[in-house]
Design goal:
The protein has a 12-stranded antiparallel barrel. 9% of the residues are buried. It has 4 helices and 13 strands. With 411 residues, the chain is mostly beta strands.
């Protein structure tokens, strides 16, 4: 008996120490006994507690399930059991219906959410209530209904020129010159006339000596000239022309003078009309009515064409063209061609119908000054048709070449 009592007294401190350690380990299950928990009824285990629905004001919080360090332990005998293959739910068999997830703390708790004070409080805003005045008030905007106004441009005009709209009617209600309302109309008229004379209606006079030369060839040596000039304004001018030829011994073969009215009809082009008087040593002088054009063609070809109707009813014509090819600023090569025609035979002048002659020349001049340039060159002349027969009848060659030395000048 004493031995058994001794053994019980020896084991009692060990049991008390083991119970204290077990109580500390299961502190997380406060309220639960150390004995085995009674089994939950089947209906409580099959119907989990409903989860609370998050509201707009409460943020959604996902609870994190902590792993129970005592999962798989047999709490009835406080003896450790071998761990299962998968971790068991530490709350399996517990009634969780009374556990509600607490909402997260409001981050604005304790903050004043009252609206900010109006920065314009106390200011008189009555003057700001009236909208700005419409800058287009009273304007007819019907043309703007479909977009931008249809302003005429050069695209709408034939030839690419800007469309010019007529002036408004009010522009013609006052005097033709608004300055006459402020100044003496007679003084303003004299000023306008002077302005026109200085900026457009300029009177000029010029004399051009195209050729003044001597020719040397197989036949007789001779001379020739061709000159023209004008006086007048930009649009209307009096134009004169003269040309002729003769032998160096002093015998005149032929000469002519033209007096013409010239009017500008296009940039660089004039229409000319007047009379032509031809002089011959045999006394067979002829007067012609003359109509022609003269100007500068594209690429700076200087051209002239004229028709002559004599008092005898004979119709002749002549076309000339020349071009200045600049080699340097001083040296200029000038090719030129002249073609003469006749509508009928003129036996007294030894001219046949059709093309009567062709003359081509090439002259090289040196401009000592723009107004004074000596030159040398060569000229070829060919009589054609019945005109060649008349030349041969006089014992001359219808085909002739001569070298020329001359002067070109203008005043």
């Amino acid at each position: 008996m004493s031995r058994a009592l001794f053994a019980a007294v020896a084991v009692l401190p060990l049991m008390l120490a083991a119970g204290s350690a077990l109580a500390q380990t299961h502190g997380g299950h406060a309220g639960h006994g150390a004995q085995a928990a009674p089994a939950c009824p089947p209906q409580a285990r099959s119907r989990p507690a409903p989860k609370p629905k998050p509201s707009a004001a409460t943020p959604r919080v996902t609870p994190r399930v902590a792993t129970d360090p005592h999962a798989g332990h047999d709490e009835r005998g406080a003896q450790a059991a071998p761990a299962p293959a998968a971790a068991a739910d530490p709350h399996a068999g517990h009634d969780m219906s009374g556990m509600q997830i607490a909402p997260a703390a409001d981050p604005h708790a304790g903050h004043s959410m009252a609206p900010a004070a109006d920065p314009h409080a106390g200011h008189d805003m009555s003057a700001m209530q009236t909208p700005a005045a419409d800058p287009h008030a009273g304007h007819d905007m019907s043309a703007m209904a479909g977009g931008a106004p249809n302003i005429p441009t050069s695209v709408d005009a034939v030839g690419g020129r800007m469309v010019e709209t007529p002036p408004p009617a009010a522009a013609r209600a006052a005097p033709a010159h608004a300055a006459d309302l402020l100044f003496d109309p007679a003084v303003m008229a004299a000023s306008r006339k002077q302005l026109l004379a200085e900026n457009g209606d300029v009177r000029t006079t010029a004399v051009l000596i195209d050729t003044l030369e001597a020719g040397f060839g197989d036949g007789e040596e001779g001379y020739s000239w061709s000159a023209q000039g004008w006086t007048g304004g930009d649009i209307n001018r009096f134009w004169w022309k003269t040309e002729g030829e003769g032998a160096l011994d002093g015998k005149l073969h032929e000469a002519e003078v033209q007096a013409l009215y010239s009017r500008a009809v296009a940039p660089f082009w004039d229409v000319q009309a007047g009379v032509r008087q031809a002089f011959r040593p045999d006394g067979d002088d002829t007067t012609h009515l003359t109509v022609g054009v003269q100007g500068v063609a594209p690429y700076w070809f200087e051209m002239s064409a004229a028709a002559f109707l004599s008092t005898e009813g004979d119709l002749t014509a002549r076309v000339e063209a020349e071009y200045d090819q600049r080699i340097t600023q001083k040296w200029i090569l000038q090719p030129a061609i002249e073609v003469a025609m006749s509508a009928s035979d003129i036996p007294e002048l030894e001219i046949g119908a059709g093309l009567t002659s062709v003359t081509a020349g090439l002259r090289l001049r040196y401009e000592i000054r723009k107004e004074f340039a000596p030159y040398v060159g060569v000229e070829w002349t060919r009589s054609l048709g019945d005109t060649a027969d008349y030349v041969q009848a006089r014992g001359l060659d219808p085909d002739a070449v001569r070298f020329v030395v001359g002067l070109k000048a203008w005043l």
